[in-house]
Amino acid sequence: MKLYYKPGACSLASHIVLNELGADFELEKVDTATKRTESGADFLEVNPNGYVPALELKSGDILIEGASILQYLADQTPSSTLAPANGTLERARLQQHLNFVASELHKAFGPFFSGRDLSAEEREVAVANVGKKLSNFENILSDGRNYLLGGDFSVADAYLFVVTNWTNFVGIDLGTWPNVQAFLKRAAARPAVQASLKAEGLLN
Ligand SMILES: N[C@@H](CCC(=O)N[C@@H](CS)C(=O)NCC(=O)O)C(=O)O
């Protein structure tokens, strides 16, 4: 398998899950501005939408969309605790969290990554919007659970980790969301997370 990624981007969640599973995989870095991969290939031939993550399977099939890739990877090892069995309420709950991270929290960071400087007012609106979405997870984690589904780290936690970690890059203080802050620290300490951050050049 080959994961097309950009350092620190949402593709990091798939990278973390590959490492959590101990999977055999290669990485290929993508410059999403030029749409070229590090080997010089045209990334638009891999994903015509031009964004990471994209997963190339041994068969040559390409899977895109982070939430699909994460679940596909977990399902390759049914004994793993990264995703509950298909058809169960727990699996639907996992999908609820994945969808919220993708369509609500991830998208709320859009203004920060627009490539232009935000005015003070625009920044205030964008920070408030991220905060509103973080509160969803603050509430879920407020019963003392370690991870979104309860005890075990799941693929939704990998995605939530990556996106909440962006608060460090855009200067949002997580002090208002102490349970999310503790979650971030807990997830960051996982060996698979550390290995992925290191491989993407995000740790010294
Ligand atoms: N709907 C896609 C969105 C992926 C996405 O937003 N990727 C970003 C990085 S986090 C990207 O590659 N942006 C570069 C671009 O769109 O040119 C998914 O959920 O996988």
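^ glutathione complex. The domain at 2-80+192-199 is CATH 3.40.30.10 (Glutaredoxin). The pocket of glutathione is lined by residues 6, 9-10, 32, 50-53, 65-66, 102 (CB under 6 Å).
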